Amino acid sequence: MKIDRNGMAGERRGEELERRLIQVLETRPSVRIPEDFALRVAGKAPAGLASRGFVPASSVGRRVAWAAAAVLLLAMLALAPSVGVGLRTNQWVEIGLAIEFAGLTAWLTLRPRLQL
Amino acid sequence: MVFRTLVRLTGRRDGVDDLAQDVFLRLFRALPGFRNEALVSTYLYRITVNVAQNEWKRRRRVDRTYVSISDEATAWEERLEHPGRNPEQGLEDREFQQLVEQHLMRLSTVERAVLVLYHQEERSYEQIAGALGMPIGTVRTHLHRGRKKMRDAIAGRKETAR
Q1: Alpha carbons within 13 A on the beta-carbon side of A33
Q2: What pLDDT is attached to residue B162?
Q3: Does CATH number 1.10.10.10 belong to domain B2-161?
Q4: pLDDT tens by residue, B36-83
Q5: Cβ <8 Å between A14 and B120
Q6: ipTM entry
């Protein structure tokens, strides 16, 4: 019986310790941020970036690239019926368009984007 | 968030502004290559943990003495105190707080980072895994192991004190 009581007391102590430990860990330290901190960081930030801040780069280039990809796709579809029966050069043009299309879509999808 | 995480991870308040500055400058430099795969906050936590780890390594090289952040009287310790508790209990709370801080500093850098991000910063397992670049299972293991180490060390110390 005594052993059980000791065991229960030990268990309770363990639970209490766990509770207090988590309470301390969850307590956020109070910090004081210097008033000129933002200015200091902006002053040391690389030139371009500091003035641009967190604004993403212009999306004009991306829009043009998407439009170009659409044009390429239409051109490939338009040329597709003549590839089998037409001139051999049409095949090479089709291949060229396909390579350009693949390169462009790869650039559009894999290029790092900045969205904050 | 950057400041308080740095304070907890490095265990010091002095020089934290310089470290925080380093964090933001690194973020600035990294932003052009930022991929939309994770939240910026996750990215920021990753940089913060890296800066804290570098500082920890640098400090271990410079001096091996340890100074607890609890050496400074701060509102942080006061906040732990329950208004209804008597001064003796308040003192005990403060000692316990210092003990936790000491043992937190004795954990490995990864365990400490996981504990701080989980408990103090209230990040999810997924966010911690993203910030530290490790699988979720490993985050869980570090969290439980870190907490167990601290619990055992504190319990052992209390037993010795009795």
Answers
A1: 15
A2: 56
A3: yes
A4: 666 778 888 888 888 888 888 887 776 555 544 544 444 444 555 455
A5: no
A6: 0.70
Average pLDDT over residues B146-151: 90
Residue A23 has pLDDT above 80, yes or no: yes
Q: Which helix (H) or strand (E) holds A108?
A: helix A88-110
Q: Nearest-CA distance from B120 to chain A in Å? A: 4
Contact list, B90 vs chain A (CB under 8 Å): none
More confident residue, B118 or B17: B118
| pLDDT at site B91 | 79
Type and span of the H or E element at A70: helix A60-85
> What is the residue extent of each domain of chain A?
56-116
Q: Do B100 and A115 touch (CB under 8 A)?
A: no
Question: Which residue of chain B has the CA closest to A11?
Answer: B155
